[in-house]
Write a structure and sequence with these properties.
With 438 residues, the protein is of the alpha+beta class. Helices cover 43% and strands 13% of the residues. The strands form two sheets. Strands 1, 2, 3, 5, 6, 7, 9, 10, 11 and 12 form a ten-stranded mixed β-sheet that branches. A two-stranded parallel sheet has the order 4-8. Helix 4 packs antiparallel against helix 5 and helix 6 crosses helix 15. The N and C termini lie far apart (61 Å).
């Protein structure tokens, strides 16, 4: 930024000095230096500063403003008119570009000044089972919950490989901390990479990739909010039986910008919005503003939940720019001022409330029921759903022969009081029923 200030000084100081000189040659030289300095200053503003505020289409604005300022200085330096005419002309040359700038750039600058949501994805290193040993000692720094007693299960060899959704990583990381041996467990490793110094054991590939890892035998247990019809069909086509073990309950929530007047939606409203039938907040009891209903990719866990809510109502295709690969992207758009107050997003409550831990969106009640913990536990909140530890089997056996015994032991332990204690301590509502799906 220093070079921009230097260019501004080179543009303004010679012009001001020229107003006090009588030598025409010196005055002309200073005027030329001033013109070049202001041109460079305008080019820097147009190329590096303004595009982030008002876009590339406003590139001409700094040239107009600086041109007016330069012309005003030249009126006093060369005195082409009488004093009264010079003053009027100079005022017009300065005021006109300033007013134009205020009209065109003012709103954008105001939006830029407003607080924004955090600009990066959740850092999963802080949820590793034993901390990041590359930078901290074991047990020295991690946000995962610790078991309040000695675990009844301890695994040392043939460790089941775990994968899953981002929102559930802190939970199954806590399972690893309690039951697995202490070592590095990177959330970002690839279960398919066998060339690492330490075998990948507990990673977070997110919903779609984790499901592929399960079917291909690279993951033994994956932790997801549910399974889509497309995923069930994929497993069935490969002769694989999916076992969904319910290990907890979570709320699927819809949220809006805090400045939105809406506080409650019905299921009918949600279907109308995401089918495209309702395009204005007035249609569902809000203010007169277009609804920006964001979506996630089809393979994501949250999009699977939206499909279940929509049931037999088709979801209207969203513009490409309104579909967010990462949940953080959707949150940022709804929470940020520049996203406008007409946005609508959805997620699982734990991800927004505990992992992002920002108070910049407003959760909506559904059918008049708020996603409070007691409403999730009782099932009163309409979108309170089980989430699962999911395994794959063929001909009645888990896919990885060497780890079959420990897979079963781990699942039983997760359903035990100790496993359910970690479910609750992490921030979810415990659950404990099991069902098979093919």
């Amino acid at each position: 930024m220093e070079i921009i200030y230097i260019a501004a000084g080179v543009g303004l100081l010679p012009a001001a000095l020229a107003c006090f000189l009588k030598n025409k040659a010196a005055k002309a030289a200073l005027s030329l230096v001033s013109l070049l300095g202001l041109f460079v200053f305008s080019a820097m503003l147009a190329g590096f500063v303004l595009p982030s505020f008002i876009g590339a289409h406003g590139f001409w604005l700094p040239f107009a403003v600086c041109g007016g300022v330069f012309a005003a200085f030249m009126l006093f330096a060369w005195k082409p008119f009488n004093p009264k005419a010079r003053r009027k002309a100079a005022c017009a040359l300065i005021i006109a570009p300033v007013l134009l700038s205020a009209v065109l750039a003012g709103p954008a600058l105001y939006r830029q000044s407003m607080p924004q949501a955090p600009g990066e994805e959740i850092n999963l290193w802080q949820y590793t089972p034993f901390g990041d040993a590359k930078h901290e000692s074991y047990y020295n720094y991690t946000l995962v919950e610790n078991l309040n007693e000695e675990p009844s299960l301890q695994l040392q060899n043939d460790l089941p490989r775990l994968d899953g959704a981002t929102a559930l990583y802190p939970l199954y990381s806590a399972f690893v901390r309690a039951v697995y041996p202490a070592r590095d467990y990177s959330p970002y490793e690839d279960l398919r990479d066998d060339g690492l110094a330490l075998e990948p054991i507990a990673v977070c590939s997110r919903t779609g990739r984790a499901f592929e890892n399960l079917l291909d035998g690279y993951a033994d247990v994956i932790f997801l909010m549910g399974v889509s019809d497309e995923q069930r069909a994929m497993a069935e086509g490969r002769g694989i039986v999916l076992e969904l073990t319910a290990i907890g309950r979570e709320a699927f929530v819809f949220f809006v910008n805090k400045r939105n007047s809406i506080t409650d939606l019905s299921i009918k409203d949600i279907k109308a919005i995401y089918s495209g039938e309702a395009a204005n907040w007035q249609d569902v009891g809000g203010n007169n503003a277009e609804i920006k209903a964001y979506q996630r990719p089809d393979e994501s866990g949250s999009q699977t939940m939206l499909k279940q809510i929509m049931w037999d109502t088709a979801i209207a295709p969203a513009p490409k720019e309104d579909v967010y690969d990462l949940m953080m992207g959707m949150y940022q758009r709804v929470a940020g001022y520049r996203n406008y107050k007409n946005s609508l997003g959805y997620s699982f409550l734990y991800y927004i409330r505990d992992m992002i831990n920002e108070d910049k969106v407003k959760y909506l009640s559904i059918e008049g029921i708020f996603p409070a913990r007691e409403n999730i536990a009782s099932g009163a909140y309409p979108f309170a759903n089980d989430f699962y530890a999911i395994t794959a089997s063929r001909d009645g056996e888990y896919l990885n022969e060497g780890r079959r015994g420990n897979i079963k032991k781990l699942l039983e332990w997760i359903k035990s009081p100790q496993g359910q204690y970690l479910v609750e301590a992490t921030g979810y509502v415990p659950a404990g029923r099991e069902r098979n799906e093919t």
